[in-house]
């Protein structure tokens, strides 16, 4: 599962390096509000943890499908050579494939849960003022 943010400036998605299974875990790592720089347009913006989305990583699915199909093939080949007919290969291989495909449900769980935005307007104004002094920019947007 990869965590991505949709950039407010260029409207392209970019990955963030943090790894978290839930938004609560992400909040403990990064805080409720955090600053990230877009990898496409190099604009630094502040984001809320609700702005983060999880995208499925298909690597685990591909690996589990390959291993499952390989086990089905090997067990069937071994049993066929002995003159036996067995469903063990189908059951074991099918279970591995199903487990790999169920890994995508963590992505759905992450995207369904949202937190409340708790920052007040006065704090937003203070952050904008601090950023003006840091960047020397009077037209800075959060």
Give a description of the structure.
- The protein has 5 helices and 5 strands.
- It is α+β, with helices and mostly antiparallel strands and 142 residues long.
- The strands form 2 sheets. It has a 3-stranded antiparallel sheet with strand order 2-1-5. A two-stranded antiparallel ribbon has the order 3-4.
- α2 packs antiparallel against α3 (88-102).
Task: Looking at this protein, list some descriptive labels.
single chain; 5 strands; elongated; two-stranded antiparallel ribbon; 49% helix
Give a short overview.
By secondary structure, the chain is α+β, with helices and mostly antiparallel strands.
Summarize the SSE layout with pairings.
Blueprint: E1 2-6, E2 13-15, H1 23-30, E3 33-37, E4 44-48, E5 52-55, H2 59-81, H3 88-102, H4 105-112, H5 121-135
Antiparallel strand pairs: 1-2, 1-5, 3-4
Helix pairs in contact: 2-3
């Amino acid at each position: 599962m990869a965590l991505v943010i949709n950039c407010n400036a260029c409207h392209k998605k970019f990955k963030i390096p943090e790894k978290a299974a839930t938004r609560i875990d992400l909040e403990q790592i990064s805080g409720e509000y955090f600053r990230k720089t877009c990898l496409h347009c190099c604009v630094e913006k502040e984001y809320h943890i609700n702005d983060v989305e999880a995208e499925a990583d298909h690597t685990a699915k591909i690996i589990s499908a390959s291993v499952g199909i390989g086990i089905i093939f090997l067990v069937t080949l071994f049993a066929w050579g002995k003159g036996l007919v067995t469903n063990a290969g189908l059951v074991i291989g099918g279970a591995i494939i199903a487990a790999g495909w169920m890994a995508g449900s963590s992505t759905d769980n992450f995207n369904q849960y949202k937190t409340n935005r708790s920052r007040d307007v006065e704090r937003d104004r203070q952050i904008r003022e601090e950023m003006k002094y840091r960047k020397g920019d009077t037209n800075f947007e959060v």
